[in-house]
Write a structure and sequence with these properties.
- This protein is of the alpha/beta class.
- The chain has 2 domains: about 180 residues, Rossmann fold; about 70 residues, no CATH class.
- It contains 7 helices and 10 strands.
- The strands form 2 sheets. The protein has a 6-stranded mixed β-sheet with strand order 6-7-8-3-9-10, with helices on both faces. A 4-stranded antiparallel β-sheet has the order 2-1-4-5, with helices on one face.
- Helix 3 packs antiparallel against helix 4, helix 4 packs parallel to helix 5 and helix 6 crosses helix 7.
- The radius of gyration is 19 Å and the shape is globular.
- The relative contact order is 0.17.
- InterPro entries: AAA+_ATPase (IPR003593), ABC_transporter-like_ATP-bd (IPR003439), ABC_transporter-like_CS (IPR017871), ABC_transporter_ATP-bind (IPR050166), P-loop_NTPase (IPR027417).
- This is ABC transporter ATP-binding protein.
Length: about 260
């Protein structure tokens, strides 16, 4: 299958006193249409930097990023982005938050209303559509952020640790929700998370980043049923795959620590 999203030789440097530091180096990655890919790695592996480059919030120092064959040169409606904080507009109701991106698209009022209604229903937000963000729980706020990103019907949904601040029960509810939304919409998803269990449950592939600088250390196919529920987390297959990926992340973290000692850090 032809890749929808392609990264070739992507590197990113940041200026520091006396020079630069390389956050990512020689990253090659393909994401096909309809994929759900999770990216994991130790702190400092460049996970969020990778997502910001794909979102067009920053440009790579080296290499190229293309979406459907077109170079990524900045933010665009073809990529929806959801952060850990949700970043809702506090003065807008739930439905008006979801409609925000649609107001910038060349669609008529009827189509805008149809999309708002559909994505509110899909994310379970119809009963609170006229509430303000301050009246919502943490999980509801993330549902709004996801609905807002999806309402523009992007080619790729980018998730930057969107459930990291939620309690365990709410996080699991959101994991079930995002898989349901992914199945229902067919949207390609690329998600960054520090939680290996979450990555294995959600993803069809799990990409492990090494650190210092960030680079692809492993790309692991998740051989679990496509129609998953939370019970799969207790199966031997799931536990073995989680352990394998945790070992890979731990191995990269140890390697980073050893390099730090060697360089006197």
């Amino acid at each position: 299958m032809t890749a929808l999203l392609e990264l070739r030789g992507v590197a990113k440097d940041y200026p520091v006193r006396g020079g630069t530091v390389r956050a990512l180096d020689a990253v090659d990655l393909d994401v096909s249409p309809g994929d759900f890919v999770c990216v994991v790695g130790a702190s400092g592996s460049g996970k969020s930097t990778l997502l910001s480059l794909i979102a067009g919030l920053a440009g790579p120092t080296e290499g190229r990023i293309t979406l459907d064959g077109v170079p990524v040169g900045g933010p665009g409606p073809d990529r929806g982005l959801v952060f850990q904080s949700g970043a809702l507009y506090p003065w807008r109701t739930v439905e008006r938050n979801v409609a925000f991106g649609l107001e910038l698209l060349p669609i008529d009022a009827a189509e805008r209303a149809r999309r708002v209604d559909w994505y509110l229903a899909e994310t379970g937000l119809t009963p609170v559509r006229r509430s303000l963000p301050k009246q919502l729980s943490g999980g509801q706020k993330q549902r709004v952020a996801i609905a807002r990103a999806l309402a523009c019907e992007p080619e790729v949904l980018l998730l930057d640790e969107p459930f990291g601040a939620l309690d365990v029960q709410t996080k699991e509810d959101m994991q079930v929700l995002i898989r349901q939304v992914w199945r229902d919409t067919g949207t390609t998803v690329l998600m960054v998370t520090h939680d290996v269990e979450e990555a294995v449950f959600l993803g069809g592939r799990v990409v492990v980043l090494a650190s210092d600088p960030g680079r692809v250390a492993a790309d692991v196919a998740v051989s679990l049923p496509g129609d998953r529920d939370l019970a799969v987390k207790r199966t031997p297959e799931f536990l073995a795959l989680r352990a394998e990926i945790e070992d890979r992340v731990r191995e990269q973290h140890r390697g980073r620590a050893a390099r730090g000692v060697a360089h006197g850090r």
